[in-house]
Design a protein that fits this description.
Rossmann fold, disordered C terminus, elongated, binds zinc ion, 26 helices, Helicase, Ruva Protein, domain 3, 592 residues, 5-stranded parallel beta sheet, Zinc Finger, Delta Prime, domain 3, alpha/beta
């Protein structure tokens, strides 16, 4: 049973018979059997099936191949499947056909080979039966591990899609296995078979000879005919959690004698997105980079450089600059990614992916589904802060940008322009809301702000009070938050010496009157009567700015070029050059 075999961690069990162990390594493996369980098959130095030469004199083998799991206990992250399979073997209730599904690199074909071994293993003494713990030493085990077993036929349906290929199999199925207990057909990417090929296969699947097993693997189970699905026992291989990948890669580094920072391993594991194989090929590159760099150590810094945008945190930083309205940082971020070799199109794609995941997180509520805790936290934060409308708008803008970048003669410039547009549009108030506001103002009659008469030098305001001037003085006195409140939210109804009556542009979470009274006293040196009305008042200073902006925009829209742009991109908004954030909404949270 795999469970009794690895009390601690399946990854602590490194008897990869494929990895040409040196004497020292074998000794280490022997020590490891203390964790791995005594009955485990630690290869004996003499009986070790691996070729003799030392690792150093061996041609370089990619990690994904070198560390292909040779026992079920080395197959990480698939314990439920292994348990089911162990039960089936124990009770001798094996299906004729198995289907392994899952994303690329989770171990589908490795599992198929392991099943082939499990079914055909005869044990070191040649007397054993089918077992979930294939010995790895007998002739069938070693032959299957090396891909040279005559009765285990592997076929890649991606390159053999035709009915003739299948017919060949069906012909051969009739003959008994040459040397093994079972004749096993492993068909990878089985969904690629043509309809005729499936039909031909189906007849055999309906009444397979007792000595034949089919092991199918696919990334796209939806493409399989129901008739095939219904005749197979299905195993869904899961994406491997980041933490498990990280510790696995740590173990591999240990085996390879390579030093690696935990953060680096974490980034590689996160970038692998659940796939051991993808992760190991990234690790391969990282080790090569580390060797080139001379320090011989896999560092977080180097991995970050190497991964570019596959580093999810770079995507998040970039989206952060967009939402913060920080154009300078946005351009710097784009340049940085470009310098790292990230294609502008991939950049847009990554941001779209991120916005999509935020949207899904928002709809789902609860803990977002993401491989790292950093990512989960960021997704949850954005899902909480952004409205569904804003997310929709972001998506539209990015999609439009993506199309532009794809067609642009200079994708980098196009990406810069597209993302700047997203930045400005994300910064403006919601178009629907703005339109409503303008409508409302038109109905109530837009009045000018109370008389503007310049700065009053006297500390006590005169009868002809200047609201804008007062706000500016409050701002200059350092009461920035209150000044902003006054600019953005206060519609002045009456402004007299010592008296302010106002309404709010929108409901605030608390009545700002006490704070206004307090600041007015401090700045003007006298007590104020501050009255909050339910309705009324002239537009706030910010609303006046928006009206001016809308007028300017209306003028600009009349320009034929701009008109054409809007026709092509109705969701767009004009953004003025200065990048002052429309801070009112951010500083004063509304309780809607
Ligand atoms: Zn065996």
């Amino acid at each position: 049973m795999p469970d009794s075999q690895n009390p601690d961690n399946p990854l602590d069990n490194p008897e990869a018979e494929d990895s040409a162990p040196s004497a020292a390594e074998l000794e280490a493996a022997g020590q490891n059997s203390m964790f791995g369980g005594a009955q485990d098959t630690v290869p004996q130095p003499v009986a070790a099936p691996a070729p003799a030469p030392q690792a150093s004199s061996q041609p370089y083998r990619v990690l994904a191949r070198k560390y292909r799991p040779q026992t079920f206990s080395q197959l990480i992250g698939q314990e439920p499947m292994v348990r089911t399979l162990a039960n089936a073997i124990e009770r001798d209730r094996l299906a004729h056909a198995f289907l392994m599904t899952g994303v690329r690199g989770v171990g589908k074909t490795s599992t198929a080979r392991l099943i082939a071994k499990a079914l055909n293993c005869i044990g070191p003494d040649g007397q054993g039966g089918p077992t979930i713990d294939p010995c790895g030493q007998c002739e069938p085990c070693t032959a299957i591990a090396e891909g040279r077993h005559i009765d285990v036929i592997e076929m890649d349906a991606a390159s053999h899609t035709g009915v003739d290929d299948v017919r060949e199999i069906i012909e051969a199925v009739r003959y008994a296995a040459v040397s093994a207990r079972y004749k096993i057909y492993i068909i990878d990417e089985v969904h690629m078979l043509s309809r005729n090929a499936f039909n031909a296969l189906l007849k055999t699947l309906e009444e397979p000879p007792a000595h034949v097993k089919f092991l199918f693997a696919t990334t796209e189970v939806d493409k399989l005919p129901v008739t095939v699905l219904s005749r197979t026992q299905r195993f869904d291989l899961r994406r491997i959690p980041t933490e498990l990948l990280q510790s696995h890669f740590g173990w591999v580094c240990g085996e390879e004698g390579v030093e690696a920072e935990e953060e680096a391993l974490h980034m590689i594991a996160a970038a692998a997105e659940g796939s051991v194989r993808d992760g190991l090929s990234i690790l391969d590159q990282a080790i090569a980079h580390a060797d080139l760099g001379g320090e011989g150590k896999v560092t977080a810094e180097r991995v970050r450089d190497m991964l570019g945008l596959t580093d999810k945190s770079a995507q998040r930083r970039l989206l952060g600059t967009v939402l913060d309205g920080d154009a300078k940082a946005l351009l710097a971020g784009i340049d940085e990614q470009y310098a790292l070799g990230v294609e502008p199109l991939a950049l847009l794609r990554g941001l779209m992916d991120l916005v999509h995941r935020i949207t899904v997180a928002q709809i789902g509520g609860g803990e977002p589904d993401a491989p790292t805790s950093e990512e989960r936290a960021a997704l949850a934060d954005w899902a909480g802060r952004l409205t569904a409308g804003q997310l929709h708008r972001l998506w539209q803008l990015l999609l439009k940008g993506y199309d532009e970048v794809r067609q642009a003669p200079d994708p980098l410039v196009s990406a810069q322009m597209a993302l700047l547009r997203v930045l400005h549009a994300a910064d403006l108030p919601d178009p629907g809301k703005l339109a409503k506001k303008l409508e409302h103002l038109a109905e109530t009659g837009v009045q000018a702000a109370p008389a503007a008469s310049g700065e009053t030098s006297s500390p006590a305001p005169s009868a002809a009070l200047d609201w804008k001037g007062i706000v500016e003085r409050i701002d200059q006195a350092g009461h920035l938050r209150v000044a902003q409140l006054m600019r953005d939210w206060i519609r002045v109804e009456t402004l007299e010496d010592g008296k302010l009556a106002y309404a709010l542009t929108d409901e605030l979470s608390e009545d700002p009157s006490p704070e206004l009274r307090d600041v007015l006293l401090k700045v003007t040196g006298r007590r104020w009567e501050v009255i909050k009305l339910d309705v009324g008042g002239a537009p706030s200073l910010r609303e006046l700015e928006e009206i001016a902006h809308a007028e300017a925009e209306a003028k600009m829209r009349a320009h034929p070029l701009v008109e054409a742009t809007f026709a092509a991109f109705p969701d767009a908004e004009l953004a003025d050059g200065d990048n002052t954030p429309a801070s009112g909404d951010r500083a004063w949270s509304k309780r809607a």
